[in-house]
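Methods — Computational structure assignment.
A single polypeptide chain was analysed. Its primary sequence is given first, followed by the predicted tertiary structure written as structure tokens.
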Amino acid sequence: MKKAAASLLATGLLFASFGPNAAFAAQEEEQNVIVIFDEKVDKKAIAQAEGEIDQTFKQLPIASVTLPADEVKELKQDKDVVRVEKDITVHASADTLDWGIGATNVPVSWNAGFTGRGVKIAVVDTGVAAHPDLAVAGGASFVSYTTSYQDDNGHGTHVAGIIGAESNGFGTKGVAPDADVYAVKSLEKSGSGSLSSILAGIDWAITNKMDIINLSLGTQTNSAAFQALVDKAYASGILVVAAAGNDGSASGTDDTVDYPARYDSAIAVGAVDSSLKRTSFSSTGSTVEIAAPGQSIVSTYLNNGYARMSGTSMAAPYVSGELALLKQANPTADAVRLRTILKDTSKDLGTAGRDSWFGYGFMQAPASAAPQAAQTAPAVSTVVSSLTASTTFIAGKPQDTKAVQLTAVRADGSKVDITEAAQWKTANSKVATVNRGIITIQNYGKTTVSGLYGGKTVNITVDASVRSLSVSTKRVAGKPGTVQKVAVTALLSSGQRADVTPLVTWKVLNQKVANVSGGVVSISQYGRTYAAPSFMGKTVNILIESKK
């Protein structure tokens, strides 16, 4: 996370100063926006708004679009558009570590034979420069001015070296020197990039089946599209590691964690110095999950060189490297399990248990595969007074996923993450299923998912119910033999719309006049009747008439 090449040593972080619902400036002739559609990208709607599609994504119905500023409001009103967001600017931030390798127990892990071999890590950043200490396995570029993933800033090369600088007898050595590092260029030469280019990088990582995504970047602006794609990555079995941000204060009392680190599906990484003290710049807040070396880190840089930099941008790749070691050491463990091991094996710092400065503690590389006893969350040694969930309400449509974290609150006030150890149940598996806290909506309807632990239960409402139905036309007219298709759209409780034409049940008042099959109305003879499509308890009427 870095301001720009000209401010290499700055510890601050520039963020987008506008939110997703900010007013679009009247004096701007064109706007770059992110458009989230309900089911699929509607190219016709964008064309009607005089827009041009810059990019679409394979994983979700999202498009980055350039269009006239005065057309944005109209596009928002389209029935197939869920949300329109300004294409915000996301920045990298770094300033100015050899000590980190020893402090995190990495040499012991190497001696045990764990070097990250076979693990695929996408570094979504400014790219990675050619360097004798780095072997890039592949990559892609999503910035506007080049198709090359070569780094023209330095930040991405530094991050990549922390993860995977090779063990070749010179230079520096990364945490996981045998991991397969992929360069995904989503930030420009300035160290900043559009949200759409970051989304494209994450989309590429999911499509190409990465094991880990490193995001040493952030913004203080939330984005539904950003969260949806990070959630999608985690639900796909990918570990998403994100820098917590460099907006910390000396007191550390504020909640300043960036997005995407703030999302439940991402691992938020804070920074410490060689004395294992929180660096004053490291962002703080309840979503910080782990701490790692982030002060004066030496790693690879441009022009075959090396540089010393600081920031949570440096701490994040330390964790990505450790997760590669953990994955090699525990080859059958999934992303949820590896995340639990990361927490369980950390060295507690600061206030006992999880805190807003260090999360669960300072990362420690594995000396061996996790023992069987570590396959569950830490035992709650005192009475569990209550359970809390990261969310108790999920609204969406079929195939949406959401990761929910479950926390046990002990009688003494301390907290333990027991997401994996809890017993999970769903009241209706046809509507939603749950696997160790990851909830997947399977069908339309409403149900409850429950997490149980220590005699306590917490309930999460999953709502994919239908508010109302609408049809593409409420009147079909013509002569006998006329055939017309009618589309039926459901408005869901989440505000999303879905085409449910193939799912509805049709009733026709007078089948001598007309019949309906699969949404296709066929007029048989002159007369007048009504057709009524019904779905999930909702009905709408359509007039059918044929006059001589």
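Note: The radius of gyration is 26 Å.
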